[in-house]
């Protein structure tokens, strides 16, 4: 699927994208180190690790859903605006 010309991704600089990925990977690494050195039994560490992974996946899912809802509202607004423009261009008040 091709990206539209006015895509939001086109507005992000490569430095911003790098910073976003670097901060994500650093936080994931720091959490992993913290869980590894946590003075607890392996079952508790495994449970917390799975909880962190579930939190990450649900956060990604929520952000994608929110983005998709916003984009669909924008598309609906553009279609409605095009319909109104068409009606106005076809309407002649003096006829």
Question: Can you walk me through this structure?
Answer:
Helices cover 76% and strands 0% of the residues. It has two helices and no strands. The mean pLDDT is 83. Helix 1 packs antiparallel against helix 2. 0% of the residues are buried. The chain has 95 residues and is mainly α. The chain is elongated.
Helix-strand blueprint:
Layout: H1 14-36, H2 42-90
Helix pairs in contact: 1-2
Question: Main traits of this protein?
Answer:
single chain, 95 residues, mainly alpha, 2 helices, 76% helix
Short description:
Helices cover 76% and strands 0% of the residues. The protein is an all-alpha fold.
Number of helices: 2
End-to-end distance: 45 Å
User: Helical proportion?
Assistant: over 70%
Please trace the helix and strand order, writing H or E for each element. HH
Q: Mean pLDDT across all residues, rounded? A: 83
Instruction: Write down how many β-strands occur, each being a DSSP E stretch of 2 or more residues.
Output: 0
Q: Provide the low-confidence segments as ranges.
A: none
Oligomer: single chain
Q: How many strands, which pairing sense, and closed or not: the largest β-sheet?
A: none
């Amino acid at each position: 699927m091709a990206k539209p010309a006015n895509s939001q991704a086109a507005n992000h600089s490569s430095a911003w994208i790098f910073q976003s990925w670097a901060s994500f990977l650093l936080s994931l690494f720091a959490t992993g180190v913290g869980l590894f050195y946590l003075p607890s039994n392996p079952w508790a560490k495994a449970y917390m690790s799975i909880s962190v992974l579930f939190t990450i996946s649900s956060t990604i899912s929520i952000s994608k859903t929110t983005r998709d809802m916003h984009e669909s509202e924008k598309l609906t607004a553009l279609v409605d605006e095009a319909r109104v423009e068409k009606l106005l261009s076809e309407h002649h008040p003096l006829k």
